[in-house]
Specification:
With 130 residues, this protein is mainly alpha-helical. The chain has a single domain, classed as de novo design (two linked rop proteins), CATH 1.20.1440. It has five helices and two strands. Strands 1-2 form a two-stranded antiparallel ribbon. α1 runs antiparallel to α2 and α3 packs antiparallel against α4. It is globular. The N and C termini lie far apart (29 Å).
């Protein structure tokens, strides 16, 4: 079954909660064993990822619009906290930044994701940037 995407209003940006969960999985992969410049155990990265997992995991398919918008907004808070923790710890890289941008795109917040991805090391000249 193909996941349907909700349309978020009024901006009209698409949200895709199942794919947001996929991106959280990628972030776990990229961040789980980081030791440089700060060991992941000395950050709150895992807690932020766990919060995102808790919010997004119940949605293998996108819910109706109103619920999808509510869930996307709820997921944005730990996503922003994750970005601040990554930046504070010095975790940077083009792929990390791309994941951040993609996560916020899936939450219907592409402009915020494009800005935050630069804080996480996405190259400004990346051909994938909007």
């Amino acid at each position: 079954m193909r996941a349907r995407m909700c349309r978020m209003e009024p901006q009209g940006h698409l949200i895709n909660l199942p794919h947001a969960m996929t991106i959280v999985g990628r972030l776990v992969y990229y961040l789980e064993y980081r030791s440089e410049p700060v060991p992941v155990e000395q950050t709150h990265v895992r807690e932020a990822l766990a919060a995102l997992d808790e919010i997004l995991r119940p949605y293998p398919d996108d819910p109706p619009l109103a619920e999808g918008v509510k869930i996307a907004k709820a997921a944005a808070e730990p996503a922003r906290f994750l970005v601040s923790e990554m930046a504070e710890a010095g975790y940077r890289g083009d792929r990390l930044g791309q994941c951040v941008r993609n996560l916020f795109e899936c939450l219907g917040m592409p402009e915020e994701g494009a800005a935050l991805s630069l804080e996480c090391g996405e190259r400004p000249e990346s051909p994938l940037r909007p």
